[in-house]
Amino acid sequence: MNKNFQEKYQVSCENCNLDSICIPRGLSSDEIKNLSLAVRKKNVFNKGEFIYRQGDKFTGIFAIQSGSAKLINYDLSGNEHILNILLPGELMGFDGFNDHYQCSVIALDTLSVCELPAERIDEICQKVPTLVKELFRHSSEKINISQEHLIVSRLPADQRMAFFLSDLSIRLKNRGFSPYEFNLPLSREDIGNHLGLAIETVSRMLRLLQNKKLITVHQKNIKIVDLNGLKKQYSIQNSTKL
Amino acid sequence: MNKNFQEKYQVSCENCNLDSICIPRGLSSDEIKNLSLAVRKKNVFNKGEFIYRQGDKFTGIFAIQSGSAKLINYDLSGNEHILNILLPGELMGFDGFNDHYQCSVIALDTLSVCELPAERIDEICQKVPTLVKELFRHSSEKINISQEHLIVSRLPADQRMAFFLSDLSIRLKNRGFSPYEFNLPLSREDIGNHLGLAIETVSRMLRLLQNKKLITVHQKNIKIVDLNGLKKQYSIQNSTKL
DNA sequence: CGTATTATTGACTCCATTCAAAGATAGTGG
DNA sequence: CCACTATCTTTGAATGGAGTCAATAATACG
Predict the structure, then answer these.
(1) How far is A45 from chain B (nearest CA, A)?
(2) What are phi and psi of B186, to 5 degrees?
(3) Which is nearest to A18 in space by CA: A35, A3, A6?
(4) How far is the CA of B165 from the C1' of C29 (A)?
C-alpha cells in the first residue's frame, strides 16, 4: 500500500468532526484507525444527483460528511415517497443489505459522503468485532425512526408539521448547527410529500404555527421561536386514554 | 455439556421446518449446526403475554416457531400503536440493538419462540461470519417493511385494508399455510389501530371488499376470493403521475 | 338465559384535499 | 433597470373521505 494509495483512499475518521454521531460512535481510537483504513475516500455529489438508486446492487454504507439528502422510495406507479431527510453524520444504505438497495438517496445540496464498502464490511467486522455491534445499533436506529414516522403519520396535519420541525431542530443541534434557525433544503411540495400533506396544507400549517408564535417563516428560512411549545403541539396528543 | 443440558437448551434448527424463512435462510448445514448450539430452547407464551417489553434491556433476537404476535409501540401518552403482525418463521428484536427494546411484542395466541441470546451473538458471529450477513439481511428487511407501511398509510382506507389482507395472505402462503382462508387473530379494534382506521371504518371496508366479491368475511374468518383483484385494489393507485 | 363485550349500520361533522385564483419569487432578455 | 415569463407559494371556497356519535345487532361469557 503506497503513499499515493493512502492519500487517495484513506480518510482518517479523526479528520471528520462527526465521530460522535457517525459510525465510530462506540469505537476506541485503535478501532477507528482500523475503520479508517476500510473507508473509501469521500465523494462529492451535486444537488439532484443520486448517491444510490433503488434497485442498484448493494455497494456499502454511506455517511454524510456535509450537506443534506432525501431518502426516497418509488412505488409501483412511479410516485416518489420522501421517507426522510438526511443530515451530516447520518448514515444510509441499511436498506440494501438484501443484495439491492430498496430506496434511493438524492442530494438536496452539494453533498460529500464517505463509504464503507460492502466487500470490506466482512473483513473489518472480523478485525473490529465491536463494529458489528455498532452497525447493528445504527440499523436498529433506522428501524425505530421508520416506526416513529409511522406513528407520526397518524397525527393531524399541524402536529405532523410540528414534529417535523422539532425533529429537524434537535438533529441539527446534535450535529453542531443552530437549532433555532435553518434553511429547509426542501420545496413545499417535498415537505408535503414527506409529511403526507397537500402543498396547500403545508402552507396553512406553517402559517398556523407562525400565528401561534412557535416559529417564523420566510420562504425556506425557518426560525424556531418556541421549541418547547412546538414539542407540546404533538407530544401531548389525546391525553384521554391514560 | 451433558445430555440433559442439550435436551433442555439445544434445539436443532433442522427440527424446525422454517429454515427457509427464519435465521438459517442463507446458511450451510454446518453453519446451522453452529447456530443451533447458540439458540436457546423454545419458550411458550400464552395469549396476551409479552415476549419482550419496550424499555427492557436487549436480550436477543427471537424467532416465532408457531403462533402469532403483535409488534407494538407505546407513545408518550401511553397509547398503543400496532406496528405489525408477526407470523411463524418471522424474527423480532432488531429494534433493540441500541441496548433497550424500543417496542413490545404480545402473543396473539399460544406462541412458541426460540431465542438467539445477545451474549452469544458476538461469539457465533465470529464462528459463522455468514450469520452476520444474514442478520443484516433480516434487519434490512425490517427497515423495508416499516417503510412500506409508511407508504401504505398514505393510501385511502379501502386500499389499506386490501394491502393488509393481501400481505397477510402472501406471508401465510410463504409459511405453508393456506393463503385463501385464515382466521385473523385480531379484533376489529386492533385492525383499526394497525391500519390507522376507526373500527367503524374497518367494518365498512371489509363489507366493501366483500361486496366487490374480493373476500368473504365471517367474524374473524377471512376467505380470499380474488387475490389478484385484491392486489389491483391498491397496486394501481393513481396512475396519473406516469 | 341474561349480561357484557364486540361488531355493524346510519346520520352527521370535521379535517384535509381539491379546485380556482391571486400573489410572490427567480430567472431571462431587451 | 424593467418588463416578461415560468415556477412556486399563499389564500379562499367547495368537495369528499374518514371520524364521531348514536343506536342496533351479534357474539362471547358467566
Answers:
(1) 25
(2) -120, 145
(3) A35
(4) 58
Measure the CA–CA gap between A135 and B196, rounded to whole angstroms: 32
| Residue A57 grid cell | 446492487
Spatial contact of A140 and A98, defined as CB atoms under 8 Å apart: no
Concatenate the DSSP letters of all residues of A78-135 into one string: --EEEEEEE-TT-EE-GGG-SSB-SSEEEESSSEEEEEEEHHHHHHHHHH-HHHHHHH
- B123-163: per-residue pLDDT in tens? 888 888 888 899 999 999 999 999 999 999 999 999 999 99
Determine the Cα–Cα distance for residues B206 and B210; give it in Å rounded to an integer.
6
Helices (H), B101-156: 118-127, 129-152
Assess contact for B201 and B157: CB atoms under 8 A: yes
The helix (H) or strand (E) run that includes residue A215 is: strand A215-218
Residue A75: strand, helix, or coil: coil
Tell me whether residue B213 is exposed, middle or buried, using C-beta atoms within 10 angstroms of its C-beta: 0 to 12, 13 to 18, 19 or more: exposed
Query: The pTM is what?
Result: 0.91
CA B50 to C1' D28 (Å) is: 24
